Fold this protein.
Amino acid sequence: MASIANPGVFFPVNKQPYRIAKFSFSSCFAASTRARASRMTKEEFLARPIDEEWEKARRQETADLERRRREEDEEEVRLALEYRRIGSSLKNYPQEEVNKARRLVANFIKSGEEIEEMIVEAGDNEELTPLLLLVIKSRLELARQDDEREAVEALDLLHRRVEYEIRKRQASPSMRLLNELLNLHDGTDDTEWLRKARHRMLKAFPPEHAFTILAPRGFDLSSHHGPIDAPVEGDDDDVLLRIDFIREVNQLVKEVEAQIHSHEVEGLDTDAVALRLRLEDKKRNLQYVKDLLEVAIALKW
């Protein structure tokens, strides 16, 4: 009996074993087709019956393949140009500031679960700057060129979070209050959310009567006796009036509605479906803002 440890029983020594070709119906069909075509004359080959549907499908596959290759080439060129553009922009900043921003980004990446606290602390220290976003974007584009998907996802989330923190700190008091009210929603009970939002508005907006507007902050008409001191100049600069909140939120609603109407899409391809889902999400959030606007309009003390 032959032994596996002794391959010479099956094959001659110092010779390669015979390779058995993998059987394929398509290869056999192609070989037989070539053989028949080689025996045909030119006239017989041109007069043969043509499967138009099959040829149409093959032409479509070729066109799709060429389109995908072209899109991949264009994407590679775009990524390279974007990386060069960011590199050129970084040269406009002092090298010391660029190195400081890079160290901060590296600390963000290494922080793990403490990244939220680090971002808030960096915002308090005024370290969240456009330069920091540019450094994150540079690393993001480099990861995309190297096709490092996990790094791309992590850096993209970091860029979005830092950008959100910057915008939140640069926003007006009305927009900061709106963001706080929206974050009160847990996604389940709208009635309870609107109740909490109304309670928060009562604390945020000063009561609207003449004595409260003219008197200093913390003035209580029901318990006050004696003369009223004039408010200190600049003491109420950060007071948010209900009318200002209503005006800014109403303007925001109009702008978002105009954007939604200008991006209506049709079709069932992948891009159209993705864009339609984003628009539906924006419409849902817009309805939440409208609900808060109605609460603010009907608010009474």
Notes: Residues 1-26 have pLDDT under 50 and may be disordered.
